[in-house]
TrEMBL record:
It comes from the Bacteria. The chain crosses the membrane at residues 845-865. Residues 1-36 form the signal peptide. Keywords: Membrane, Signal, Transmembrane, Transmembrane helix. Residues 778-809 have a biased composition (Low complexity). PROSITE patterns: PROKAR_LIPOPROTEIN. It comes from Jiangella anatolica. This is PBP domain-containing protein.
Length: 874
């Protein structure tokens, strides 16, 4: 039986990169995820711009008024554009909405836009007057949809017919590209002194974020999520980079409206044949003069903390990326420590912190507690963040209309995760025509092409037309490579559903759809053992090999599941790819040149597209960051609940005391509350107490911020980004107690025992009218769920050594965990609770692997995982 070894190799290398190079990682600041507002929750920096008021400069002054006598004036006189966030932006999506626009006109042939749309691009430019066309990312060659965009509307070219009246002969001559003998606008990178005619050395169809066709409805409205790029993803823009004068480079979002008039004043809608259409580039001077430009205040990227500051590395759960970036900027502002964050699997974080090796991070983020099998060092636990695992979706029709709601059951998610639909197996042909024999594997013959074609999916989501959203059907659900407690909770949610469990064991569903037997056997083993994996396996037994037409003895490279269905680098990476419909898979291209440079035929990456269907396993924070939807999941009470604030809060309230340490709560897949989202996430900071006093003091400061100012929702440095819920008061008290304990003379000493908030002394729910301690999203007075009761054990100490409780062994990393039992009802919270060790799967080979990959891991380990595509410097 084979499942993908890739994530196991990656987990070991990530962990051991820390062992071999922890000093390097400790010096890195948190990488900068962000938070993007939605239409229902605009940020404080949302701005609305009326086209008629003129072009606005960086200081909000009017740098160019409109001309009421211009032929285009009537097209845009009522146009208003709103951008959901303009300050403290990073690599993220912002929502752009508009009203008063010219409705989109399609040619009589029905396949090309003739008029009435918006074109969006990101630009750099340091002057108050705004950017120049030369500093904007536009016109990437080969971008999908280029063929359907008429003339030069999607290019940097300057047409001579119709002639732009603002381009005289001398000016036009300056735009003549001698390499192709055509006129076009060159591109000047922020990092370059001279412009280039062809910007491919900076951006291409895979890395551009330009949006060529923002269609406008009949009522003049429209919307689009636009993905911003910072200087890490787009060095040619340099947004967020610190300049020589110490200022941070801001950038611009430019919206060029296209009405019914061309640059020469001709109205294309006046053509009685219905075949005329706009043909000029948005960079042509007359079109450019109609722009709306939005100044974007970028958050700093890179080393924004003092180099001489103390380095206090942290490691762990992907849930913490956005919070760490926000908090770090406040914590180091007043000569505080640098809390470098390395995203890694929860099990890796637990073993790293508990291992106690010199130079390893002293704080790890995890959802499950550290136990004896993770390492010998004593550790305390403190809750620091509440969010939720989410299945993010992006469903956009070719006309720009978005699907805003999606429902999924455990059975449907199980199908998505097990390569059950025939499009998810590499090289598998489509079903043969009726009457012809089907030579495909018997188990898949009744299975649909994708989840969109599944009758169970269609019944729940009738608005998702498979014919409209066929694009990107393969690799529809992207999953993270890193094992995590959150993915284990996802499997536990699936396993506790009777229908899904029976299907995984081999029973067909009501429509005859069967599980992929390779993965079904793997997961049935977990079901029978009462465990759940912390990763998503791939069927690596199925690969596609095709004989060459020229030489039957020569084979193309093997095309396997990891080529068709590659993993993402984490929650944020999955959400980013989803937002631009980037599948990340490799498809065989008969015209591609292989690495050898000889002949033709190799694998290439399909470019992002402006519409389609895509799903990803992500978190509530990353989904907000990139403006993608989150599916409503079926809970144990039979209700579909999305990861909203209310749904996650109810889910946290329904969590159970942990099996190993009661105050480290665990998700209850059988929660009876109909309002509870089934996949809430409480992230704990696990701090090794055997550290130098200075380190403990700095980690104590971190916890104080996490329980204090860090729980204030907002967009400013140090605040809580969108997608998180503030900790309830009882959890804040627990964290502050741990912070105080770390600076005591003997931090290992057992603190006073306290019971979990929201539950009585006997482990049961408190009676009505009990002491209110607040819930997720509650105010400091404790208004809100989950209920009442004293604070839980503030230390949640997990020392190595004797096990006075006889606790059960925790799972091997990646190997699953026992299904949770209800709380025991004991009066006292178990503060010191360790467990006997057990084999730890592939991690038992750590010492061997570190000798081989330690150095390479230190240099290119998980601290680099977030880095997106980089265009080479010019």
């Amino acid at each position: 039986m084979k499942v993908s070894p890739a994530l196991r190799i990656r987990t070991v290398s990530a962990a051991l990169a820390l062992v071999a190079g922890a000093g390097l990682l400790a010096c890195q600041p948190a990488t900068p995820p962000a938070n993007a507002a939605t239409a229902d929750d605009l940020s404080d920096s949302a701005r609305t711009y009326a086209w008629s008021e003129g072009i606005v400069g960086a200081d909000d002054s009017i740098v160019a008024p409109r001309d009421p006598d211009h032929p285009m004036y009537e097209d845009f006189a009522d146009l208003e554009v709103t951008v959901s966030q303009t300050e403290d932006v990073r690599a993220q999506s912002v929502q752009v909405t508009w009203s008063g626009g010219v409705p989109t006109v399609i040619t009589s042939g029905g396949n090309q836009p003739a008029a009435g749309y918006l074109q969006l691009m990101q630009c750099w430019g340091d002057e108050n007057a705004g950017p120049d066309p030369e500093t904007c990312v536009w016109g990437a060659d080969g971008l999908p949809g280029t063929a359907s965009m008429p003339g030069d509307t999607g290019l940097r070219s300057l047409a001579t017919a119709p002639a732009d009246p603002l381009l005289d002969e001398d000016t036009l001559a300056g735009y003549l590209d001698p390499t192709i003998n055509r006129h076009r606008v060159p591109f000047l990178a922020a990092s370059a002194d001279e412009p280039v005619w062809d910007p491919v050395s900076y951006y291409d169809r895979w890395t551009t974020n330009e949006f060529r066709l923002g269609m406008t409805r009949a009522d003049g409205t429209g919307e689009r999520h636009f993905t911003l790029q910072d200087g890490t993803e787009a060095s040619h823009l340099g947004c967020g980079r610190t300049l020589e004068d110490g200022e941070v480079r801001d950038c611009w979002l430019v919206v060029v409206p296209r009405g019914t008039h061309e640059v020469d004043g001709f109205a294309v809608t006046d053509d009685p044949t219905g075949t005329s259409m706009l043909r000029t580039s948005p960079l042509s001077p007359t079109n450019w003069a109609q722009r709306i430009q939005v100044r974007l205040d970028f958050a700093p990227i890179g080393l924004f903390c003092p180099i001489e500051a103390a380095q206090r590395p942290t490691i762990g759960s992907d849930f913490m990326g956005a919070a760490m970036y926000s908090w770090q900027r406040a914590l180091c502002a007043d000569d505080g420590a640098v809390y470098g964050f390395t995203p890694a699997g929860d099990s890796t974080a637990r073993e790293t912190v508990a291992g106690g090796l010199p130079g390893n991070p002293g704080l790890g983020f995890t959802s499950a507690p550290v136990t004896e099998s993770d390492g010998p060092a004593p550790v305390v636990h403190a809750p620091v963040a509440i969010s939720g695992l989410a299945i993010g979706f992006n469903l956009v029709a070719p006309d720009g209309e978005r699907i805003d709601e999606l429902r999924l059951t455990p059975l449907l998610v199980a199908k998505l995760l097990t390569q059950t639909y025939w499009r998810d197996l590499p090289g598998l042909p489509a079903p043969p025509p009726a009457g012809q024999p089907d030579e495909r594997p018997e188990w898949i013959r009744a299975n649909p092409e994708t989840v969109l074609d599944d009758p169970g999916f269609q019944q729940l989501n009738p608005d998702v037309d498979p014919g409209v959203f066929r694009l990107h059907a393969s690799n529809l659900l992207k999953v993270p490579v890193e094992p995590s407690d959150a993915v284990r909770d996802l499997w536990r949610w699936i396993f506790h559903d009777e229908e899904a469990a029976a299907w995984l064991r081999g029973e067909p569903d009501e429509n005859g759809i069967r599980v992929n037997p390779v993965l079904g056997e793997v997961l049935t083993g977990h079901l029978e053992a009462g465990t759940a994996p912390d990763f998503v396996p791939r069927d690596v037994e199925y690969c596609f090999e095709v004989l060459s037409e020229e030489d039957e003895s020569a084979r193309r490279p093997r095309y396997c599941s990891l080529d068709l269905l590659p993993y993402t680098n984490g929650f944020e990476d999955g959400a980013r790819r989803n937002s631009i419909f980037e599948t990340n898979f490799w498809a065989y291209d008969p015209n591609a040149v292989p690495p050898s440079g000889q002949g033709r035929g190799w694998y290439s990456r399909p470019e992002p597209r402006p519409s389609g269907a895509a799903l990803t396993i992500t978190d509530s924070v990353s989904a907000a960051q990139y403006g993608i939807g989150t599916a409503a999941l079926l809970n144990a009470a039979g209700e579909f609940v999305a990861p909203t604030e209310a749904g996650i809060a109810a889910g946290v309230e329904a969590m159970l005391p942990g099996d190993e340490i009661e105050s480290v709560l665990q998700v209850d897949p059988e929660a009876a509350d109909p309002a509870a989202y089934p996949l809430p996430a409480v992230t704990y900071a696990a701090v090794r107490v055997e550290q130098e006093d200075e380190a403990l003091a700095d980690y104590s400061t971190f916890l104080e911020h996490a329980a204090g100012a860090g729980q204030t929702p907002g967009w400013s440095p140090g605040e809580l980004p969108e997608g998180y819920l503030p900790l309830p008061e009882y959890m804040r008290e627990q964290t502050l107690a741990v912070a105080a304990q770390l600076v005591q003379e003997d931090p290992v000493e057992k603190p006073p025992g306290l019971t979990p908030g929201g539950r009585g002394e006997d482990g049961e729910d408190p009676p009505p009218g009990g002491d209110a301690s607040g819930g997720p999203g509650s105010d400091p007075a404790g208004n809100g769920a989950p209920g009442s009761g004293d604070a839980p054990d503030p230390a949640s100490l997990s020392p190595a050594g004797d096990d006075p409780t006889g606790g059960t062994a925790p799972p091997a990393p990646g190997g699953g965990t026992e299904n949770p039992a209800p709380p025991s009802g004991d009066d006292d919270v178990l503060v010191a609770q360790s467990t006997p060790g057990e084999p730890v799967g592939p991690m038992q080979y750590a010492l061997l692997v570190v000798l081989i990959v330690g150095l390479a891991g230190a240099l290119a380990g998980p601290a680099l995982l977030r880095l997106g595509p980089r265009a080479p410097a010019g």
